[in-house]
Fold this sequence. Notes:
2 copies of one chain form a homodimer. Chain A has a single domain, classed as Pnp Oxidase, Chain A. Helix content of chain A is 22%, strand content 45%. Chain A has 3 helices and 7 strands, in the order αββββαββαβ. Chain A has helices at 6-13, 51-58, 90-102; strands at residues 18-23, 29-34, 37-38, 42-47, 61-68, 71-86, 116-130. The first copy, chain A, has a 7-stranded antiparallel β-sheet with strand order 2-1-5-6-7-4-3. At the A-B interface, strand 1, strand 2, strand 5 and strand 6 of A face strand 1, strand 2, strand 5 and strand 6 of B.
Amino acid sequence: MSKFEAGLIKLLEGKNFASFVTLLKDGSPHAAPTWIDHGDIILVNTALGRLKEKNVRNDPRVALSIYDNENPYHMAAIRGKVIEITTDGAEDHVDKLAKRYIGMDKYPRRSADEKRVLIKIQAEKIHHQDYS
Amino acid sequence: MSKFEAGLIKLLEGKNFASFVTLLKDGSPHAAPTWIDHGDIILVNTALGRLKEKNVRNDPRVALSIYDNENPYHMAAIRGKVIEITTDGAEDHVDKLAKRYIGMDKYPRRSADEKRVLIKIQAEKIHHQDYS
Lengths: 132, 132
């Protein structure tokens, strides 16, 4: 069940990387390519203690941009707010992403002391366009 | 003449889109997929009056992320500051980008009243990695 339109869902469910943008303590922006998922909301999976997690705990305002790898003129820009940061389900979820993005049952880059965390994002503005 | 390392230059000179991040008036981030270029600095070409231009006039702090379309595990995250916003050379520059990205001599999406503008970005932090 998703409130997103079909074209955007295609972007979010492809092997496309999103640029996930968070704000640093001084208010300047930080962007990094990330795997992306969605339910009713947008999901980013990272590890506890990473910059992304620190930033969204400090300021919940985020942005994402994404385009279709096979047709970059199909793209979306999303602005939103982080509504939850949780380790619940995050380990299984990163395995799900690994399956989708790289065809592996288990996320292969876990380090021994790493704890995965889910960042749940409520989209507030979506600009979705297909120039192709 | 570029101060960027070879792998990053490959990213910046490919047909890869960058996510270009600017700050809105309220300090929240805005990200959009864009064509990208570089000299000693990073170059983004947009049109006068667009959100990107308005945002960087208000706050020069920007971020970019980029990955290789053919190998998204080769990626870079860049933080920097806008050091110049100029229409000088911007019309020719967008044609150069059109040649590189879509093989056309002239940028095909110019509207009659559009004036192109170059946003020149000094990179301050570059995180460049290749997991492939």
